[in-house]
């Protein structure tokens, strides 16, 4: 079942023009299962925000049959927009027509190659999280860069809804299946990408982004500004010989029975993403919730528990000396309802 994303306890509507709100993307890594409660915490390296802009649309929708897929090609209907937020950086661009709109967001919460992609489109209506779906880059489009995603409703003016696909964190080189880090993304690789392709079954949607080189260069300038705002040196962070490493598994940072039940006791799911500042001793010196979907209590619980339980081996600078740095963590909140007890009949 698709649900409308909720951020900081508030719902939002994606306007056909511009509602200034944001979509967000989860990507689970670690899991906790205990009794009726299910949470999972993920450790990510780095990433960034969003507002929506679907302005006067002018596009061409074509149908072809590469690899037995019916491909809908949507051309850009707006220029790139950079959102230099206080906690994240995101690039947004509209595609398609007023009758068949789409919106792309590329978001980072810090420097590095990782990013979150959220694509909202009418063509995705009817898809579910059980759908087998992949995200590829064009023109090559050989190996997918992401295949894990969350589906959400995005209401638009007039009472209709679009479907948003919020992909797990990835890079322009994807992720290696053996768990090792992918090759570093170069400016040449970014400039060679001219489209993004979402494919499922015998269908596909292609967004004609044009070369991404200049857009991603602007993204790097923005994330460098983020690092400075945290009191860190972007040049030092880019040249670290080691990043902070958790001393304990992140899935132990949030107690499995810590779901913050509200007064309505509705058992709603949620997603919280936070950035931890880690000092040169490996201690957590600060916690900032960057995104929170669901009850506001999720954010308070996340920072309270991670600040008290998380500990790290500190980052190391180029000379191998301990240095202050940062770490990103995400928690997905769910309640696993207990099975009903069936009593024995009396004879």
What does this structure look like?
The strands form 6 sheets. This protein has a 6-stranded antiparallel beta sheet, with helices on one face. Strands 3-4-21-16-17 form a 5-stranded antiparallel beta sheet, with helices on one face. A 4-stranded mixed beta sheet has the order 5-14-13-10, with no helix packed on it. The longest helix has 17 residues, at 213-229. With 347 residues, it is mainly beta. The chain has helices at residues 187-192, 213-229, 234-238, 296-309; strands spanning 6-7, 10-11, 32-34, 37-44, 70-75, 81-84, 89-96, 101-108, 116-121, 133-138, 149-155, 161-167, 195-200, 203-208, 245-246, 270-278, 284-293, 312-313, 315-316, 322-323, 325-335. The protein is 12% helix and 34% strand. The N and C termini lie far apart (42 Å). This is TonB C-terminal domain-containing protein.
Secondary-structure map:
Blueprint: E1 6-7, E2 10-11, E3 32-34, E4 37-44, E5 70-75, E6 81-84, E7 89-96, E8 101-108, E9 116-121, E10 133-138, E11 149-155, E12 161-167, H1 187-192, E13 195-200, E14 203-208, H2 213-229, H3 234-238, E15 245-246, E16 270-278, E17 284-293, H4 296-309, E18 312-313, E19 315-316, E20 322-323, E21 325-335
């Amino acid at each position: 079942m698709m649900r409308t994303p909720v951020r900081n306890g508030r719902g939002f509507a994606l306007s056909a023009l511009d509602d200034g709100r944001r979509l967000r993307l989860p990507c689970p890594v670690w899991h906790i299962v205990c009794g009726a409660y299910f949470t999972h915490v993920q450790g990510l390296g780095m990433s960034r925000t969003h507002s929506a802009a679907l302005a006067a649309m002018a596009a061409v929708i074509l149908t072809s049959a590469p690899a037995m897929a019916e491909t809908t090609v949507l051309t850009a209907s707006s220029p790139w927009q950079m959102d230099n937020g206080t906690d994240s950086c995101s690039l947004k661009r509209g595609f398609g027509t007023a009758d068949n709109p789409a919106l792309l967001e590329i978001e980072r919460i810090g420097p590095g190659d990782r990013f979150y992609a959220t694509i909202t489109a009418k063509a995705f209506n009817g898809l579910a999280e059980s759908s087998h779906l992949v995200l590829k880059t064009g023109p090559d489009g050989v190996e997918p860069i992401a295949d894990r995603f969350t589906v959400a409703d995005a209401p638009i003016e007039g009472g209709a809804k679009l479907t948003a696909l919020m992909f797990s964190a990835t890079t322009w080189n994807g992720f290696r299946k053996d768990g090792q880090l992918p090759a570093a993304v170069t400016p040449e690789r970014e400039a060679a990408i001219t489209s993004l392709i979402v494919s499922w079954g015998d269908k596909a949607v292609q967004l004609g982004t044009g070369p991404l080189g200049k857009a991603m260069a602007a993204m790097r300038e923005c994330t460098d500004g983020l690092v400075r705002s945290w009191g860190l040196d972007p040049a030092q962070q880019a040249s670290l010989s080691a990043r902070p490493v958790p001393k304990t598994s992140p899935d132990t940072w949030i107690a499995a029975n810590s779901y913050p039940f509200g007064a309505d006791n509705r058992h709603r799911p949620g997603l919280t993403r936070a950035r931890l500042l880690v000092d040169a001793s490996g201690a957590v010196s600060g916690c900032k919730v960057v995104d929170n979907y669901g009850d506001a209590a999720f954010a308070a619980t996340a920072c309270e528990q991670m600040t008290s339980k998380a500990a790290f081996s500190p980052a190391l600078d180029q000379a191998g000396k301990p240095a202050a740095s940062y770490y990103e963590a995400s928690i997905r909140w769910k309640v696993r309802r207990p099975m009903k007890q069936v009593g024995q009949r009396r004879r």
